[in-house]
Design a protein that fits this description.
Blueprint: E1 3-8, H1 18-26, E2 28-35, H2 47-66, E3 72-75, H3 78-89, E4 93-97, H4 102-117, E5 121-125, H5 147-155, H6 193-197, H7 204-215, H8 222-225, H9 238-242, H10 248-255, H11 264-285, H12 312-318, H13 324-336, H14 341-354, H15 359-369, H16 375-386, H17 401-408, H18 413-418, H19 427-430, H20 438-443, H21 459-476
Parallel strand pairs: 1-2, 1-4, 2-3, 4-5
Helix pairs in contact: 3-4, 5-11, 11-16, 13-14, 14-16, 15-16
The chain binds flavin-adenine dinucleotide.
Length: 477
């Protein structure tokens, strides 16, 4: 019987898996995961992502075990390792699902050559986006740079149909040795990850439970609820999507309840799935997106002279800026590995516009601390916030974090949850404790500068500095 190696990357699932489906139809299946830190170039998964990966791999191994298969886990250089497994297993094909990140594309191109040179079949399949980036171009055959045009084009295409999970899988005769998941040392030595995981069930079942809870609950109200950080108005599926525990096609089909016409809430949600596709589209066509501004004039932007903004970067990272919405977001991130999108936009804007710290410093912090850290989404999000991407927020539009808090967290519940030292203040003053009277602060038990920081910058002054910095770009254009 033929044996096919399924090279597992960030597609840690059994269902809607084109490579696995093909392998199952060919004969025996040997799923192989290779931990090769060098393969990701500068973008080795960050600390929070590694924790997620550890648990997602264990869950996938258990799912394969239940079907009579072993997930072979290896550590080493990807091409040499796969070539070795190919030789030792007697397999005659290697298959995988495509990724659209620059380092992953380079690795899979090299794998394809090595496998073919060894006389075996090498074949890749569409990856976990709704529409593959190379297939989407505008009338001039160029990549889309504006989301609305991209979205309109994609929405007119037939939606991808998710594949069912193979009913049975056949184990191969050969049993090459691998290593344990624990030996990959994805978990930190000092176990800071335990409280973070209280928030998540890192498994395919956990992903499905989140999806079901969302489509049977908040999806109806998504168009409004998605902007309310104090409520569970969004799906919280981003990490499952990043690691391929669920696909966008599966989520879209479930949100639309198959072919039934979708509600406004479900369609607003599906549109966000297309933002994810757009990010992958941009990264595929502009592979320098994580490193360089897509709007090249920003290469000359006068960022703060010291990379850490004279300590302000650390204040931002710790959630000690004196701006409660920003601090709540940064603390939510540290505690849970997640931050609500509305708050991500605000903390990012604050870092680049109020503190004039380079967007790449924020991108790196998110990369290390988010469980859903995703090269495409993160780079697009930061370039959007900094105003230097394509289809980005204009640089001159500067969020006022106090007004944003009052608008999107009107009862200041989100702030109370993540900045508990302000929770005894009336909601109005939780948004702006620095503006509260001495009596109100005393009653709320807050000593500014001791229990909670004074604002590290004045909003109006910071706004003026940001606009002046931006004006230098226009002056030199
Ligand atoms: P939902 O609102 O339920 O949306 C469903 C899915 O659509 C998400 O899981 C996500 O895959 C996709 N999506 C939603 N909004 C966006 C968006 N604006 N851009 C791209 N995809 C989107 N998302 C990541 O997955 N990884 C990141 O590293 C990341 N970094 C970001 C950095 C910044 C500065 C900003 C402003 C946004 C970033 N985002 C990132 C996008 C967005 O904040 C998250 O995808 C979203 O908050 C995840 O929560 P959810 O699953 O509940 O989203």
């Amino acid at each position: 019987m033929k044996t096919t190696i399924v090279w597992v990357r960030r597609d840690l699932r059994i269902g809607d898996n084109a490579a696995l489906d093909y392998a199952a139809g060919r004969g025996a299946v040997l799923p192989v995961f290779v931990w090769d830190p060098a393969a990701d170039g500068d973008w080795l998964p960050g600390a929070a992502s590694r924790v997620w990966l550890h648990h997602a791999l264990r869950d996938l191994a258990a799912a394969y075990r239940a079907m009579g298969l072993r997930l072979l886990v290896c550590r080493g250089e990807t091409i040499a390792t796969l070539a070795d497994v190919l030789r030792r297993s007697g397999a005659d094909a290697v298959v995988w699902n495509r990724s659209y990140e620059p380092a992953a594309i380079a690795t899979s191109t090299a794998v394809k050559s090595a496998v073919r040179a060894a006389g075996a079949e090498a074949r890749s399949f569409p990856g976990a986006v709704l529409h593959e980036p190379p297939t989407i171009t505008n009338r001039q055959g160029l990549p889309f740079k504006v989301f609305t045009a991209f979205w309109k084009y994609c929405a007119a295409l037939p939606p991808p149909a998710p594949l069912p999970a193979p009913a049975t899988l056949t184990a191969p005769a050969g049993k090459p040795r691998g290593v344990s998941i624990d030996s990959l040392e994805l978990l930190p030595r000092i176990r800071w990850d335990r409280p973070m995981l209280n928030d998540w069930t890192v498994s395919a079942a956990g992903a499905r439970a989140e999806l079901e809870a969302f489509v049977n609950g908040s999806v109806e109200d998504y168009a409004d609820g998605r902007d309310r950080p104090a409520v569970r108005g969004t799906s919280r599926l981003s990490a499952y999507l990043h690691f391929g525990q669920l696909t966008a096609a599966e989520i879209m089909a479930r949100a639309r309840r198959g072919n039934q016409p979708a509600s406004g809430g479900a369609e607003a949600f599906v549109r966000q799935l297309y933002w994810r596709d757009f990010a992958h589209h941009l990264l595929y066509h502009f592979p320098h997106m994580p490193e360089r501004a897509l709007n090249a004039s920003f290469d000359r932007f006068p960022w703060a002279e010291s990379a850490d903004g004279d300590g302000l970067l650390a204040a931002w990272q710790r959630g000690e800026t004196g701006y409660p919405l920003v601090d709540a977001g940064m603390r939510e991130l540290w505690a849970t590995g997640y931050m609500h999108n509305r708050v991500r936009m605000n903390v990012a804007s604050f870092l680049v516009k109020h503190l004039l710290i380079h967007w790449r410093a924020g991108q790196s912090w998110f990369w290390d601390t988010l469980v859903d850290a995703d090269l495409a989404n993160n780079a697009m999000g930061w370039q959007w916030a900094a105003g230097c991407g394509v289809d980005a927020a204009p640089y001159f539009r500067i969020f006022n974090p106090v007004l944003q808090g009052e608008r999107f967290d009107p009862a200041a519940d989100y702030i109370a949850r993540w900045v508990p030292e302000l929770s005894a203040l009336p909601a109005k003053w939780r948004h702006k404790p620095a503006a509260a009277s001495a009596a109100i602060l005393r009653e709320g038990g807050v000593r500014l500068g001791r229990d909670y920081p004074r604002p590290v910058v004045d909003h109006q002054e910071a706004r003026a500095s940001a606009l002046a910095a931006f004006a230098t770009l226009k002056a030199r254009a």
